[in-house]
Amino acid sequence: MCPPERTAEAVDLLREHPGTAHLIVHRGVAVTPEGDLVEADVAREAADEIVDALCGLGLDHSGGITMEALDTALSDAADAAEESAPGEAADAVVWQELLGRTGEESRWNATFQAFLVIACLLAAVGVLTDSPVTVVGAMVVGPEFGPLAAIAMGLVLRRWDLVRRAGLALVAGFPVAMACTLAGVLLGTAAGIFEPDVIVRNHEVDFVYQVGPASFVVALLAGAAGMLAMTSAKSAALVGVFISVTTVPAAGYVVVAAVAGRWDRAGFSLLQLLVNLAGIVLAAAIVLILRRRKQRSGVLLRPLSRG
Q1: pLDDT of residue 192
Q2: What pTM was estimated for this model as a whole?
């Protein structure tokens, strides 16, 4: 959406770019903000460059830019746009899209906290019942990768507001989830459902608190795979990321071990949590740096819009 005085510039920009197909202009149909509506199918490889150019016209402030992924486009023009755009679609990163996704997933809100509480409770139950399957379920439910990816994104793009917001989600979210888990474990113990002392005999889930160099290596690999999945829109790979890192299970183990009076295991579990968080952020940031350099091929980047 753009004001009428900017429509010609926007249309010329889209028409001249080889990565654009199916350009449509609706005059005077936009109500809020008032103006014209311009639609175009854009090859993913060209999307980042085109969005930056449109932001350069100020359309993210005076109008609005909306992106939607198209699954299928049967057209010679679309095929020509994909062939003309540099690179491969799977390798292209749409930075504004990624910034929007990570920004949304980094917020500390009721939904994020609820998922984290449920994940920690599942982890605690898995530890108490010596059930690796339940622990894996807790890994999948845990929502912590969103803020971790946002922190990596903020560090690479120097978006400190994003780093602060995502950091708050983790710093506030985990203690609240662990406090709720503590209440649950204490209630279960008082009701005779759980016996925290059994963790000394439960060896199937010992991997949760056994921290070492391998823990950091796994966190690095998981962080790299997770960011690759986010930047290439291959979200199915994120499930594998979730079940490969010991973040939420470690938080749950800290609580159970503390209730059982096993402070050594509680300490190791806490260290496991911190090692995994740090490894994921580090690897995700490295992937972003490498992909950014490759996509822009040494061309100086303009600052991303904050719109």
Answers
A1: 87
A2: 0.80
**64 burial level (CB within 10 Å; 0-12, 13-18, 19+):** middle
| Residue 242, Cβ density class (10 Å: 0-12 exposed, 13-18 middle, ≥19 buried) | buried
Q: Residue 68, class by beta-carbon neighbours within 10 Å (0-12 exposed, 13-18 middle, 19+ buried)?
A: exposed
Look up residue 25 and give its DSSP letter. E
* DSSP characters over 144-213: THHHHHHHHHHHHHT-HHHHHHHHHHHHHHHHHHHHHHHHHHHHHHHTTS--GGGGGT--TTGGGT--SH
Q: In the beta sheet, which residues pair with residue 30?
A: 35
Residue with tokens 């969103």, as numbered in its chain: 146
CA distances to 19, 289, 299 from 296, rounded to whole Å, are 16, 11, 5
Backbone angles phi, psi at 41, to 5 degrees: -90, 130
Distance, first Cα to last Cα, the chain: 14
Can you list the pairs that 298-305 forms with residues at least 24 positions away whose Cβ atoms lie under 8 Å?
302/52, 302/56, 304/52, 304/95, 304/96, 304/99, 304/157, 304/159, 305/55, 305/60, 305/96
Q: How far is CA 130 from CA 47, 121, 142, 255, 257, in A?
A: 49, 14, 19, 15, 13
User: pLDDT tens digits for 243-269?
Assistant: 667 899 999 999 999 999 999 999 999
Over the range 283-306, which residues count as b (16 or more CB within 10 Å of their CB) and which as e? bbbbbbeebeeebeeeeeeeebbe
Q: Which helix (DSSP H) or strand (DSSP E) does residue 26 occupy?
A: strand 20-30
Q: In which region does residue 167 sit, left (phi positive, over 0), alpha (psi from -120 to 50) or beta (all else)?
A: alpha
